[in-house]
Design brief:
480 residues; alpha/beta; 7-stranded mixed sheet; two-stranded antiparallel ribbon; 19 helices; 11 strands; 54% helix; globular
Length: 480
């Protein structure tokens, strides 16, 4: 119902599907919600269809929105990232008082959030960049929420967010992440892991289709079975549903009539760009981003049809054994994706002084979000046991999982290569693992080359310090 005299606990501006659903979520949890949208028609549409969800206050202007809120005022922005967000922030800030809280719940670039938080702090306002994962369903029924920003703002805002978040074992999938842009940074990396996870599932599907000749229904049955074991996750669950869907127009499996060109909104690219800046090798995530890019290179792909494949191997004849190999390879590669993501989070935390807690992040990703999965419980346990874990793959459970699956992993990658089936995420994940465990890498040669053409120096295995060789002439070595 609407209550024009109520003093609302929270305001929401931007009432597209995500904004509308999260406003309804607040209302369902007993909060009075002040509604605002640039187009009043969307506000009225929400009230016409969902006024029974709880108490709402209809507002037409930012001034009315601010007037409807109790102090400290809390306004959640759910508009398109970029200039639109800056415009709404400025309009809100001009109408607010010191101590009020502006929350950006969109997919903002974390560096923008750092900038905005600093500027609003100067004006006495609290700015919270909150990553929200779970899509439309999560926004309504319980998302995973990753709020960054001033700790004092969480004292007022936290109870509201925790109440509407997904709950797992009585624990809300929401916690104060850290200062300024940390919440949006963590959400960005979350999305990067999501890209990798989806690509790995796609490569498994490709192998079933082209290496084993399974149809969509057969592959759906495999994923349905996998969702009862260690691979249980939201993405594996919906993969089975997508593969089971029949196209009403043709009677074919819907997946077989969908154009094979994946789109993206940018958070995966942001993750890779940030990793490059931080010097963290998120190879699986990067390959997932590039795989979407090459899928969209439709003109090039069409022109390349018929290029030589070379001599291809015979397809596997033991479907049951190869299916198990794919399962183990998928699990091991997923571990690598999460390990790389947590490495990036640790590097970002160190770079910006955020003091992030990896175990807390795994805990709030267990429900509500797109990458929610059974094995996040294992990640939580790993970091609870050793908060200084150098890499997730060194935790006993994950080390055992990879060692158990390593032979299957190698067979899958080798078979894919021999059959000409692209598996960039499977392959790069295995190469990353092999690089980490290698006693010696070819980087020694790289350093020699760099010193040869640029006098960049190198270190020795048998002495401390930096050295340079006079490669032309007497080739003697000098200490740098």
């Amino acid at each position: 119902m609407t209550n024009p005299t109520a003093r609302a606990q929270i305001g929401v501006t931007g009432l597209a599907v995500m904004g509308s659903n999260i406003a309804r979520n607040f209302a369902r949890h007993g909060y009075t919600v002040a509604l605002h949208n640039r187009s009043v028609a969307k506000t009225d549409a929400l009230l016409a269809e969902h006024s029974g969800d709880g108490d709402f206050v209809r507002t037409e202007t930012i001034a009315e929105l601010i007037a409807a809120l109790e102090k400290p005022r809390r306004v959640l922005i759910m508009v398109k990232a970029g200039d639109a967000t800056d415009a709404v922030i400025e309009e809100l800030a001009a109408a607010m008082e010191p101590g009020d809280i502006i929350i950006d719940g969109g997919n903002a670039l974390y560096t923008d959030t750092i900038r905005r938080e600093a500027a609003l702090r100067e004006r006495g306002l609290n700015f919270v960049g909150a990553g929200i994962s779970g899509g439309e369903e999560g926004a309504l029924n319980g998302p995973s929420i990753m709020p960054g920003g001033p700790a004092e703002s969480y004292e007022s805002l936290g109870p509201l967010l925790e109440s509407i978040a997904a709950q797992v074992d009585g624990t809300p999938c929401c916690t104060h992440i850290g200062p300024d842009g940390s919440g949006h940074f963590v959400k960005m990396v979350h999305n990067g892991i999501e890209y990798a996870d989806m690509q790995l599932i796609g490569e498994a599907y490709h192998l079933f289709r082209d290496a084993l000749g399974f149809d969509a229904k057969q592959i759906a049955d495999v994923f349905t079975q996998w969702n009862t074991g260690d691979l249980e996750s939201y993405l594996v669950e919906i993969t089975a549903e997508v593969l089971n869907q029949v196209d009403a127009k043709t009677g074919k499996a819907l997946v077989d009539v969908i154009v094979d060109a994946a789109e993206q909104k940018g958070t995966g690219r942001w993750t890779v760009k940030s990793a490059l800046d931080l010097g963290i090798p998120v190879t699986g995530i990067a390959e997932a981003v590039f795989a979407r890019a090459i899928s969209g290179s439709r003109a090039q792909r069409k022109a390349a049809q018929g290029l030589a494949s070379g001599t291809l191997a015979d397809k596997p004849t033991d479907a049951e054994t190869f299916t198990e190999d794919i399962r183990r390879a998928l699990y091991a590669s997923k571990v690598i994706a999460y390990a790389q993501g947590f490495d990036q989070i640790a590097a970002g935390s160190a770079e910006y002084g955020w003091n992030l807690t990896p175990g807390d992040l795994a805990r709030i990703w267990r429900g509500g979000c797109i990458i929610r999965a059974r094995f996040l419980n294992r990640i939580t346990e790993a970091y609870d046991e050793n908060p200084e874990l150098p890499s997730l793959i060194l935790a006993p459970y994950f080390r055992d999982a990879i060692e158990t699956g390593i032979d299957s992993w190698r067979r899958v990658v080798a078979t894919a290569i021999q059959l000409g089936i692209p598996v960039p995420a499977f392959g790069s994940s295995l190469s990353y693992y092999d690089a980490l465990r290698a006693e010696r890498l070819p980087a020694a040669l790289t350093q020699g080359q760099r010193d040869f053409f640029g006098a960049h120096t190198y270190e020795r295995t048998d002495a401390d310090g930096k050295f340079h060789t006079l490669w032309s002439g007497d080739r003697s070595e000098v200490s740098a």
